[in-house]
């Protein structure tokens, strides 16, 4: 079964002009009608770091969740953010960005990798108390532009540490769009076989002409969870200055269906969401 994670938070967070709270909520409400597994809808982080997400709590109050089967995921960068997010029953998942790159970890969360792992453990304990689940994103999971060490073996070491903390969902993240299909397949194949009790996701950034080959590469490696954003909007504002777009969800859907997967999405609601995205992002 394929899990499609739609990420309006990732699509919006790097935009310089603030999107009105009501517009954010209207767009996410439309996405909730489509039938995605999860909506990565917002983040509880410093408004100084990501000003676009300063209204996440207000957006949440405006969401109509009664008819939707989609779950909600919010990104947090420290324990305080996790405690804020855990105040809301509507949120199912807390996502934490752990980096294989020491440079990017400090740039992204103002903490070392060692400190970040301690944060992951604390958040995991909080989630267990509240009945929530933590999703850990292994950023720079396919390469490193900062000169820090990188290897598939290093990825495996991080996964082992997260397994010891009983993390059940790990998303391998290509933060800057450098992943080659062969490496995508190799990384997922090794991790999926070594840790069958963990759900491994792909949070890839890509040019549109490379999306199909990257999805197929992930499938070959055993990945069944994919993150994307309609029309490929967004990218990580804490990475290199030139943002590489998210995987365009509509292209991933096309590829997955071509590969024979039944996604059970409401295509008419998807078309409406595509139309609405044009007014939100242009």
Automatic annotation (TrEMBL):
Which spans of this chain does the record mark as coiled coil?
none
Alphabetically sorted, this entry's keywords are:
Lyase, Metal-binding
Q: Which GO terms describe its molecular function?
A: hydroxymethylglutaryl-CoA lyase activity; metal ion binding
Q: Which InterPro entries match?
A: Aldolase_TIM, HMGL, PYR_CT
Q: Which residues cross the membrane?
A: none
Among Gene3D superfamilies, the record links this protein to: Aldolase class I
Source taxon at top rank: Bacteria
Which Gene Ontology terms describe the biological processes this protein takes part in?
ketone body biosynthetic process; L-leucine catabolic process
Q: Where is the Pyruvate carboxyltransferase domain?
A: 1-271
Q: Which family does it belong to?
A: Belongs to the HMG-CoA lyase family.
- Name of the protein in question: Hydroxymethylglutaryl-CoA lyase
Source species: Algoriphagus kandeliae
What is this organism's lineage?
A: Bacteria, Pseudomonadati, Bacteroidota, Cytophagia, Cytophagales
């Amino acid at each position: 079964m394929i899990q499609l994670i739609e990420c309006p938070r990732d699509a919006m967070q790097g935009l310089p002009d603030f999107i009105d709270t009501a517009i954010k909520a209207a767009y996410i409400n439309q996405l909730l009608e489509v039938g995605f597994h999860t909506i990565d809808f917002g983040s509880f982080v410093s408004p100084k770091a990501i000003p676009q997400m300063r209204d996440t709590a207000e957006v949440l109050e405006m969401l109509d969740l009664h008819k939707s089967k989609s779950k909600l995921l919010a990104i947090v960068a420290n324990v305080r953010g996790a405690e804020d997010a855990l105040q809301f029953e509507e949120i199912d998942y807390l996502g934490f960005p752990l980096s294989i790159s020491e440079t990017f970890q400090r740039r992204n969360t103002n903490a070392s990798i060692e400190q970040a792992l301690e944060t992951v453990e604390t958040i995991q304990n909080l989630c267990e108390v509240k009945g929530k689940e933590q999703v850990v994103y292994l950023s720079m999971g396919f390469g490193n532009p900062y000169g820090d060490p990188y290897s598939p073996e290093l990825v495996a070491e991080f996964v082992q540490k997260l397994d010891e903390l009983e993390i059940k969902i790990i998303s391998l993240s290509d933060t800057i769009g450098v992943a080659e299909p062969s490496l995508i397949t190799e990384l997922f194949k090794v991790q999926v076989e070594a840790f069958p009790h963990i759900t491994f996701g792909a949070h890839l950034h890509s040019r549109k002409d490379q999306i199909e080959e990257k999805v197929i590469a992930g499938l070959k490696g055993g990945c069944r969870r994919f993150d994307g954003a309609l029309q490929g909007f967004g990218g990580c504002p804490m990475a290199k200055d030139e943002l590489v777009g998210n995987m365009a969800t509509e292209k991933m859907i096309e590829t997955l269906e071509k590969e024979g997967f039944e996604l059970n999405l409401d295509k008419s609601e998807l078309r409406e969401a595509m139309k609405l995205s044009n007014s939100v992002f242009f």
